[in-house]
# Entry
Amino acid sequence: MEASELAELRTTYIFTPGEASTWGLAYDLVETRLRERVPDEFTRLQPEDEGPVRGSAMYFGFTLGEETLEGTAKLAPEGISLEDCTAQSAAEFVQWLRNALVADGVAIWFNTEWGLEAGLPDAAVADAPRPRLVAGFLAHLEATGLLN
# Structure
């Protein structure tokens, strides 16, 4: 697969604090930080009839240019995901996550829907510039073996 084709692939990226760690995630903080970026970004808590407990998930939009991606935040297990996005979009999102929600020095781990299907373990997100993040996400997609 050519690099340009690989860069256009879309999957769900899942970000977590890793084992035995926490970000102290709170839905009101996620909403506040999203609206600081884009004042009319959508957010909603999971209705009672869709899950075991009202508010067991928060759905949100994350606008990148002309596109609004959908994400989900959960308090237990703690994490935040961004659906149907490219490695470039995931890199931009994780930089926002690091700057807006995760305290300095606290790790961010990731996997993808494809990585989970392939049995890949979670991997640490490097504290690096966007091009290096994108390269790491693309290498992860290649490692899934699902591109053949």
